[in-house]
């Protein structure tokens, strides 16, 4: 039986085939994400992988349904697997914010789903780091969030040679639009044109802009001038103080596709041959109000960073560490008469938290030792019966040293050597 | 907007309300599960949260559909959210086992789903530790797996006062059945009667047994005698060698409901007032063959332990630790003129991996200090400008010591004090 198209199985290393997905690689990325978010004081949360369809249509309109992994459940509810985390988060925060000190700094690593019928061979799920701040309208919050984004990528070994934060502003584009277009209802359409500008031919963009009464030359001048607004200047100065200035540049090509952004927006962008967005986010000061039906009004901002694009980039840049966990101890059982005592020792060593392996059934000594080497064991231990007394022979495979020890103290001895 | 019935939002501590689910409690349990599985040499994997409906009906028959969270997707496939992990695992192992050394020892912490229409107010999801061994038919593997189960519970602070492993055998019950019943097609029905025996009135059980030609007195005698089979004796001896004998008892009331078990089966059972199963598992030597359509034949065994029952038990036994993560450093910014230098220091301290917080916007000194205390900061740092030079005032809140330091060396100094 096969797994569903577009989904991944995550196998432990060493991988069974070249195209298999690695649990250990996923775990490596998640750990770096977590460590970084935690040192920034962000706290982790999670929500259900399923929500009412309404939660997504409220925010993005009915047209989003074509991309959702949605269905009708046994209770006749219209349901969707979550395509993004922000609506769930806004729902949670709207209901609970009274009980948390502001600013609320939270993160999550949800699995997200989409289902576009035409997209054969494309993944229908990925994982995403989501980090968000609620309750602070000052650009200091935007800077804190962008610093976290930069450090999440630095924690994985990426540097300013590998990526840049392209910083822009919905406000700046809104001012631009309002000064030039007579029809305010075309705002969303205008943002969509700007969002697609880099991927489209100049003539196509110009034509589209013309249709809503905007001069393409004006747009190009605005982008190439790249004059920071007051809030963007404040963000740049803040990041400069942190010595992260080299990671950021104003780039008005960025506007972000989602409808709900309101202020500064940004993307982490892979430099050089790769040329693609690794992460993106921005301010969405009106979303909590929308989701809560007007009950709660909280400024908010956040970003999302997916695991698939990121893992590809790390592979490309040769930044993957060795993903096979070395074990601490392999218990060699060459004399079956001491198996009970050997099991007792396995238990003692594991009780100290050390990763310990042994052969479940009788096996030749050299086969056991070979297995110990494959598992990159730091120590082997072998019990020997000498005139009725049990003696432990310990080998430190790192320094190629062997010594004898009393069975009672062997576990602690190894533990202490490992801590050195 | 509300979340779907039967699903949980997981909030960071301190919780916004008494009935809110705690992300930090979930994380505490997951961490203990992971640490224990890893020290036993188990490697982590994961699969898709969705599978074809067929994967579940093949194993358990069509009657399982009533309990599944199943639906039809946009590509007209019959799909189900996973109700358990074993079929996914068997599918993965059947496809990849050639490339892994045996025994394969794997674990996962999947979220599982069910949807029974009548069960209002009941959870429709939970998380489960799943640990499995493939490729070893010797009872030594059963003992290794049960030892892992015991240690997973011990790692959470539970002892032999709190739980017991009730060990039984499908083989023993099969022999019993074959020696007494003329109709072999009644085997599954018989197991179901035994499985429900403890929760049903004696007369009801007796009547049901009579209907398939089994004498209830025989059954009761078999249970009360509790004579271990050879394989169970071997498991008991093995666990005895590990000094885990006190955690296990033979108990033929256990047979496990699932159809696919073949050999030893067991449950971790809460003692005393609680009296409920915390975990359960056993051998399923035929499942890989079934799932792979006969292509792969591998002996297998595993157990599952859910987070909901376990968390309730830990609360009941007062075994929950403090779940609020203390931060390492709070940067006090009382003089706004040194905010840039303070941000630089925040960055330096975070670069060393320490959890660091500060006020994003100007705030009164005492308010900032109060926040530092709430976050259980170990250190506060405050920069002061003295005749054009910046000086760092560090307070160690644990030992109530204060000292001055050069800004350049402050981060490392704090880092070293924390490592002591």
Write the SSE topology.
The structure is a homodimer of 420-residue chains.
Chain A: E1 10-11, E2 21-22, H1 23-39, E3 43-44, E4 50-52, H2 53-60, E5 69-72, E6 78-81, H3 86-96, E7 104-108, E8 111-113, E9 125-134, H4 139-154, E10 163-169, H5 170-180, H6 187-196, H7 202-211, H8 216-225, H9 230-241, E11 248-250, E12 264-270, E13 277-283, H10 287-291, E14 300-306, H11 307-316, E15 329-332, H12 339-351, E16 356-358, H13 365-374, E17 379-386, E18 389-396, E19 401-405, H14 407-419
Parallel strand pairs in A: 1-2, 3-7, 10-11, 15-16, 15-17
Antiparallel strand pairs in A: 4-6, 5-6, 7-9, 8-9, 9-14, 10-12, 12-13, 13-14, 17-18, 18-19
Strand content of chain A: 15-25%
Counting helices, strands and paired strands, the structural category of chain A is alpha/beta
What gap, in angstroms, lies between the N and C termini of chain A? 49 Å
Number of domains of chain A: 2
Q: Show unreliable segments of chain A.
A: none
CATH class membership of the largest domain in chain A? Alpha Beta
The CATH homologous superfamily of the largest domain in chain A corresponds to: Bira Bifunctional Protein, Domain 2
CATH topology value of the largest domain in chain A:
BirA Bifunctional Protein, domain 2
Number of strand elements of chain A: 19
Integer-rounded radius of gyration of chain A: 28 Å
Task: State the helical fraction of chain A.
Answer: 25-40%
The most extensive contact between chains is: A-B, 99 and 100 residues
Biggest pleated sheet of chain A: 9 strands, mixed
Task: Average the pLDDT over all residues of chain A and give the rounded result.
Answer: 94
Named at the architecture level, the CATH assignment of the largest domain in chain A is 2-Layer Sandwich
How many individual helices of chain A?
Answer: 14
- Kindly report the oligomeric state of this protein: homodimer
What is the overall silhouette of chain A? elongated
């Amino acid at each position: 039986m096969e797994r569903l198209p577009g989904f991944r199985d995550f196998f432990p290393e060493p991988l069974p085939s070249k195209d298999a997905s690695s649990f250990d690689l996923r775990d490596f990325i998640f750990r770096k994400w977590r460590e970084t978010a935690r040192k920034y004081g962000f706290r982790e949360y999670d929500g259900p992988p399923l929500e009412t369809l309404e939660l997504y249509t409220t925010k993005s309109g009915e047209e989003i349904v074509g991309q959702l992994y949605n269905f009708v459940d046994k209770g006749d509810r219209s349901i969707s697997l979550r395509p993004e985390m922000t609506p769930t988060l806004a729902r949670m925060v709207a209901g609970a914010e009274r009980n948390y000190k502001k600013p609320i700094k939270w993160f999550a690593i949800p699995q997200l789903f989409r289902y576009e019928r035409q997209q054969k061979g494309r993944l229908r799920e990925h994982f995403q780091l989501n980090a968000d701040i609620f309750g602070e309208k000052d650009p200091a919050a935007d800077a804190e969030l962008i610093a976290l984004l930069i450090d999440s990528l630095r924690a994985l070994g990426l540097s300013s040679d590998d990526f840049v934060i392209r910083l822009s502003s919905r406000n700046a584009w809104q001012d631009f639009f309002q000064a030039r277009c007579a029809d305010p209802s075309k705002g969303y359409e205008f943002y969509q044109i700007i969002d697609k500008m880099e991927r489209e031919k100049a003539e196509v963009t110009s034509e589209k802009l013309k249709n809503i009464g905007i001069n393409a030359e004006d747009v190009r001048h605005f982008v190439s001038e790249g004059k920071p607004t007051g809030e963007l200047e404040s963000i740049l100065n803040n990041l400069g103080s942190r010595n992260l200035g080299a990671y950021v540049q104003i780039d008005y090509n960025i506007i972000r596709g989602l409808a709900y952004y309101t202020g500064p927006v940004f993307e982490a962008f892979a430099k050089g041959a790769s040329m693609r967005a690794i992460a993106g986010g921005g301010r969405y000061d009106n979303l909590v109000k929308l989701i809560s039906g007007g009950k709660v009004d909280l400024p908010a901002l956040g970003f999302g960073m997916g695991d698939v694009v990121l893992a590809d980039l790390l592979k490309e840049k040769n930044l993957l560490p060795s993903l096979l966990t070395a074990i601490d101890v392999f218990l060699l059982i060459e004399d079956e008469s001491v198996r009970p005592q050997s099991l007792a020792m396995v238990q003692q060593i594991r009780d100290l938290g050390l990763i310990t392996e042994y052969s479940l059934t009788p096996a030749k000594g050299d086969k056991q030792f070979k297995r110990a080497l494959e598992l990159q064991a730091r120590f082997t231990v072998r019990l020997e019966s000498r005139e009725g007394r049990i003696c432990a022979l310990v080998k430190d495979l790192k320094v190629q040293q062997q010594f004898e020890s009393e069975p009672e103290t062997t576990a602690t001895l190894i533990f202490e050597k490992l801590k050195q």
